[in-house]
Amino acid sequence: MLQKTDEEILLLKESSLLVGKTLGEVSRHLKSGVETRTLDRIAEEFIRTHGGIPAFKGYNGFPATLCISINDQVVHGIPGSRVVKDGDVVSVDCGAVLNGYFGDYAYTFIVGETDKRTIDLVRVTRESLELGIAEAIPGNCVGDIGYAVQLHVERNGFHVVRDLVGHGIGRHLHEKPEVPNYGKRGRGMPLVENMVICIEPMINSGTWKVVQENDGWTIRTRDHSPSAHFEHMVVVKKGKPEVISTYDFIENRE
Ligand code: MG
Ligand code: MG
What we know:
The protein is α+β, with helices and mostly antiparallel strands. It contains 5 helices and 15 strands. It has helices spanning about 5-30, 35-50, 115-135, 140-155, 250; strands spanning about 55, 65-70, 75, 90-100, 100-110, 160, 165-170, 175-180, 195-200, 200-205, 210, 220, 225-230, 230-235, 240-245. The strands form 4 sheets. Strands 8-7-9-14-15 form a 5-stranded antiparallel β-sheet. Strands 1, 2, 4 and 5 form a 4-stranded antiparallel β-sheet that branches. A 3-stranded antiparallel β-sheet has the order 3-12-11, with no helix packed on it.
């Protein structure tokens, strides 16, 4: 169903909370020198210890709990023996199932120091997510979200990936509607109260064009420019959209 019941939204909040805590746990260990598969193991153990199931593992054959995408990798990077280095831009996307409902969201970390343009890329990507979220009200269409994201990104000299989009979420990881990060005002599927959607701008410093690596999963920028990715879970609400995911466990940890 496009519209969730209040009870379903409560369940989605619980799944989302588990993803948030998992990302927080991962962030404690995300530093220069760590192998990405170590982060993946930490995430899987954390999810299972808290009664959940990793949502990505086995999804169309994806082999891991996290998608970890570094620098020119946009999304769907497979954790492995790669070691995180100072200056890396690391997108961590996490999904978990709890009580039959999915949580799915992502954060981009800058490890150590990087150049100003890359810092701006990460900031603008996050700002574009906030602007997209603000459009998630009944009476708007998915195109209004994409328009807001695209406008902010392109005004700042960055580029929106076209090949991958956000999505509805519920008892399935990917539900209708598709939520592109580009678009025109008033176009696309109308947004209705209590729809739950994942808005997830994937923004490149260089060309928007992407290619898939030989592993069959990893999407990277065609020109090897860096890319950033943030994702939140949002309930469409009259007046003000409700964000049911949180970065608090990453940013406000003790
Ligand atoms: Mg998603
Ligand atoms: Mg995701």
